[in-house]
Amino acid sequence: MLALKKVAITGGLSSGKSTVGSLFRDRDAYVLDTDAIVHQLFEIPSVQLQIIQLLGSQVLVEGKIIRREIAQIVFKDPEKLDRLEKILHPLVREEIERIFKEVSKEKKWSMFVVEIPLLFETQSDNFYDATLAVVSSPQICQQRYSHKNPLVAKDYQLRSSRQLTHEEKAKRADFVLYNNGNLEELKEKFNEVYSQIIQ
Q1: Using H for helix, E for strand and C for coil, what is the string for 19-37?
Q2: CA 23, 130, 163, 29 torsion: positive or negative?
Q3: pLDDT band at 149 (very low <50, low <70, confident <90, very high)
Q4: In the predicted model, what is the mean pLDDT of residues 83-99?
Q5: What mean pLDDT, rounded, does the chain reach?
Q6: What is the DSSP code string of 128-192?
Q7: Residue 1 pLDDT class (50, 70, 90 cuts)
Q8: Can you give the pTM of this predicted structure?
Q9: Max Cα-Cα span within the chain
Q10: What's the angle, vertex CA 181, arms to CA 189 and CA 183, rounded to 5?
Q11: SS3 of 111, please?
Q12: Contact assessment for residue 109 and residue 4, using Cβ atoms and an 8 Å cutoff
């Protein structure tokens, strides 16, 4: 039996990565969101301790890491953000590889898909057989982000500044999905790209 194909979905903030992930899920792919992995890591006491040592006890409330508190600190302090990423990124990568091994044993999935915003920024792309960038215009992304997160709309520029540009992500990816239209248009483009990925 052929090895389970590993596909990474990347893209800028609010470009539509999760929507594309759901389209893969409709095709019986195992879809993993790195954001969910980070949530799980934040519940591990040893990880919590490292984060508190770095950012202070205010990020922990009733035993839970408050992501909003973290964001307010690190997006104004690039050095602390770098140090936080050095704690989290290797752990995320280990967890992705562990889950891939488990999923491969099950032999019931069409492919293994990971939503990973900082794919190229963390030099993680070599792990995957194919990389897919979901690209929208920055203006549309900012509108979507502000609509979903009205209280933190100003964070868009801060968070985006930590990522490669949309153009650079598209240039580095094996496949590109442009998501400036409606869902039906995205589905149509996805079907074309999906048929190329499975070849």
Answers
A1: HHHHHHHCCCCEEEEHHHH
A2: positive
A3: low
A4: 95
A5: 89
A6: -SEEEEEE--HHHHHHHHHHH-GGGTTHHHHHHTTS--HHHHHHHSSEEEE-SS-HHHHHHHHHH
A7: very low
A8: 0.89
A9: 50
A10: 65
A11: coil
A12: yes
Report the chain's C-alpha Rg in angstroms.
Answer: 17
Band (pLDDT 50/70/90 cuts) for residue 145 is: confident
Structure tokens at 175: 């496949």
**DSSP code for 15:** S
pLDDT at 53 over 60: yes
CA-based nearest residue to 32, from 42, 43, 18: 18
Q: Residue 136 is encoded by which pair of tokens?
A: 């929208």
- Whether 137 and 144 have beta carbons less than 8 Å apart is answered as no
Of 14, 50, 54, 53, the closest CA to residue 35 belongs to 14
H or E element that contains 6: strand 6-11
Q: Tokens in use for 187?
A: 């589905």
The number of residues making up the chain comes to 199
Pick the residue with more confidence: 12 or 22? Answer: 22
| 174-191 confidence digits (pLDDT tens) | 999 999 889 999 999 999
What one-character-per-residue DSSP string does 44-84 give?
SHHHHHHHHHHH-GGGEETTEE-HHHHHHHHTT-HHHHHHH
